[in-house]
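We modelled the chain as a single entity of 378 amino acids. Its sequence is:
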Amino acid sequence: MEKNNSASTISLTVKKQRFDYIDQFRGFVGILMLVGHCSYYFNSIWLNLDPFDPLFPNWSQFALRYVGYLCAPGFLMMNGAMVWWSYHKRISKGTADWTVRWHLIQRGLFLIIVQMIWVNSSWGGFRVLQPWHFGIIATIGFSMILLTLIINMRWQIQLFIALAILVIHPFLLDISYDPENTWARVLMQTFIDSGEFNKYPVLPWFALATLGAVMATGWLKEWKTNQQRIIISIGIASVAIILAIVVRTGRGFGTISPFSDFGSWSFLLDQKYPPSLYMNLWFFAAVVIAVSLFIAIGKVAPKLLIVFSIPGKVPLFFYAVHLAILGIFVKRIGIFYREGGVLASLIGVVVMLVIMLPLCKWFYGVKRRSKNFFIRMI
């Protein structure tokens, strides 16, 4: 009986709320990622920049690099939220449990294939097929598959699993392995560590996806008003920030990079590849606060957010196509490849948005009308 009541509640919520702020936030982080990609292709600083230990000559280059740090946690948490929503929405319509899970697993496998067949090769303009890499899209797909195993559990259990992974992960980073050993490298960098095979290890990012599912329980079901969503979200984010500060000031467990003084830039920026416990707590809070801001802005000035809704409704299409265009025209053909700086990168962003926004609007219409399996997966 409880299950039927829950399904009824979710079904009623579907009719009343479209959750535009989720699409808008996904579009926002997608555009931030476009900023980072345009910098990668147009910015000459990448001729000498080590992404694992970057140094920057000025504040504008610093901002251009770090503005994209919200993207990966934003994508993982929103994906977790949408997995939660899709599962419960389909269950509320009477779809069998395994059928729903299999649909989500297929989606996860599709993302892994897209990473290895399309995304990896698109970076170089499809000059060669490069399947031997496990990147952010594949990590999202793998996390999605793992999330199907726990998606019907109570949010308290999901929260416990996510926090347990985040606490255990720093200990796993102490495991030594030979990066020249293919199997050891693939296993460690798929799940725990970062390197050439994969900068986004599944375990810590799966934990953030699970936290996204936990937050979805509140955002999309339990908290009935925007005011509730904003106030409770800010409270949760504040707790996460306090925990992050405690972890960082300990200068030990849960941190990787040293810092000079409390409140300095070095204090705020710890390692992302792989993410430390501090970074995960910090960016979980950042995502929750950002979503709250989108809810608040959408309440008073919704027209300001329309531009973000366009790519946010088809985030995978936006990611895959803009990367392919940059790879083909900038990297392969060589149009202004790493010849500029911050200004060139920002001009590239504007040009790509002029191209991508109409394409996203068109494809969203195609996707809504189409019954094709592959188009529906994109």
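As a brief sanity check on the tokenised model: Residues 17-377 form one domain. Confidence is low (pLDDT under 50) at residues 1-17.
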